[in-house]
Amino acid sequence: GAVVSQHPSWVICKSGTSVKIECRSLDFQATTMFWYRQFPKQSLMLMATSNEGSKATYEQGVEKDKFLINHASLTLSTLTVTSAHPEDSSFYICSARARDRGRKTEAFFGQGTRLTVV
Amino acid sequence: ELKVEQNPLFLSMQEGKNYTIYCNYSTTSDRLYWYRQDPGKSLESLFVLLSNGAVKQEGRLMASLDTKARLSTLHITAAVHDLSATYFCAVDIVGSQGNLIFGKGTKLSVKP
Description:
The complex is a heterodimer of chains A (118) and B (112). Chain A has 118 residues and is mainly β. Chain A is built from no helices and 13 strands.
């Protein structure tokens, strides 16, 4: 299957600082990328959807000024957690999809990023 | 409201036994996925089911899809310890941008 690379795999940061997470589709052009968050022992919850070249669409309850998403190219989306607090500590996973003759292709997931805010 | 319900949420099995995990969903879907997640890791794709009556098998795992009943099953045959993990089903909603709706996951523990 296609490869989605997420970086870093884990990061520890101090409260109040910002952290950037990258999500790259390595062998296909991702027209849409998704950012999910997963708390311990819970399922994945969608945070936002981003389409290349346009503003991200955030799910209800997700602060767009805190979780900045940029999808500047068809192969790269970034999630920046601004002014991080301990409650932002979580596992963040990106997913990427393309379109083939108008149909959505299979969803591919990155390796995830474990964020710990101390 | 879109719902994807998985059961059971916890499953403790003995090696060699068989069991089935169920995934019910509440709206029309054009694709259903099964994933495995090991602790601290991301999702590993197991199966993608595209049409009614689809059945796929890989090793000791077999997945099926009944779109009329909006039900998918993941059947485990002769479980081994290496299958211990959390299993998620996820649904692709017709007409959506492509985000998946996940079930809560089934934590499987296979004991010797």
